[in-house]
């Protein structure tokens, strides 16, 4: 199933702030959150003013949150559209369909939105290591409604499992997907020999199938 692109528009955003965001996302993804300073971000973004990040975003943590929220909003817009289409057809009827609603919008965002999607999955992995609870604290109740819709369907489809088991497996599921999407992103960006394998529809299908198997295992 294809998901339509639903862009998120920032009103009044300057070219400088866009360049800073894109540069910071790349540096954080490549080196980690702690290892990168705001001065480095400004310098790599071609800004003579070393205080450019502070001027546009305030603090480094505020910049990190902005990158996270920006990407999450864009993925969530795609995820809501994907789920609405599934639900209109009476689905998701299987765990695999519900899992696809989690994975496909993230893949589409990374592949189709070069301005905002590049490096985002690797940024998420680095962010999870920097502060394991930051993603949930920042997104919960505001920017993860589509993901929660997916989990609601998964709980229904996995009703034979105790709720505690479901929750534990959802944690494994999230880590599995995050790690593989970050690896996929890196391989596609670096142009190594495995690019064709990762780009294929079969690879995406296998990612969905194996993630579903993790949830459905006896």
Notable characteristics:
transcription regulation; disordered N terminus; TetR/AcrR family transcriptional regulator; 0% strand; 12 helices; 218 residues; HTH-type_TetR-like_transc_reg; mainly alpha; transcription cis-regulatory region binding; DNA-binding
Terminal residue distance:
28 Å
Radius of gyration, Cα only, in angstroms? 18 Å
When the domains are counted, the total is 1
Shape: globular
Give the helix tally: 12
- Which percent band covers the strand fraction? under 5%
Task: Please provide the ordered H/E string of secondary-structure elements.
Answer: HHHHHHHHHHHH
Helix % is over 70%
The assigned structural class equals mainly alpha
Number of strands: 0
Low-confidence stretches: 1-9
**Average pLDDT rating:** 90
Q: Major sheet, described briefly?
A: none
Question: Could you explain how this protein is built, in words?
Answer:
This protein is mainly alpha-helical and 218 residues long. The chain has one domain (63-216). It is 73% helix and 0% strand. The chain is built from twelve helices and no strands. It has helices at residues 15-31, 38-44, 52-57, 60-88, 95-112, 114-117, 120-130, 134-139, 145-157, 163-190, 195-199, 201-216. α1 crosses α2 and α5 runs antiparallel to α9. The two termini are 28 Å apart. The relative contact order is 0.13. The model is unreliable at 1-9 (pLDDT under 50).
């Amino acid at each position: 199933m294809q998901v339509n692109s639903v862009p998120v528009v920032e009103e009044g955003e300057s070219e400088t702030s866009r360049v800073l965001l894109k540069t910071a996302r790349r540096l954080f993804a490549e080196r980690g959150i702690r290892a990168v300073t705001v001065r480095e971000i400004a310098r790599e973004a071609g800004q003579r003013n070393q205080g450019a990040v502070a001027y546009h975003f305030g603090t480094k943590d505020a910049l990190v949150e902005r990158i996270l929220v920006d990407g999450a909003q864009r993925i969530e817009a795609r995820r809501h559209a994907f789920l609405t289409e599934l639900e209109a057809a009476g689905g998701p009827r299987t765990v695999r369909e519900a899992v696809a609603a989690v994975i496909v919008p993230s893949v589409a965002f990374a592949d189709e939105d070069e301005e905002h999607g590049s490096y985002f999955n690797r940024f998420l992995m680095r962010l999870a290591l920097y502060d394991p609870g930051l993603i949930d604290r920042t997104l919960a109740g505001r920017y993860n409604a589509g993901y929660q819709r997916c989990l609601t369907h998964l709980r229904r489809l996995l009703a034979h499992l105790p709720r505690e088991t479901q929750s534990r497996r959802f944690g494994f599921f999230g880590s599995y997907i995050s790690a593989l999407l970050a690896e996929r992103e890196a391989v596609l960006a670096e142009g190594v020999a495995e690019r064709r394998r990762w780009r294929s529809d079969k690879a995406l299908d296998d990612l969905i199938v194996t993630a579903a198997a993790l949830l459905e295992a006896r």
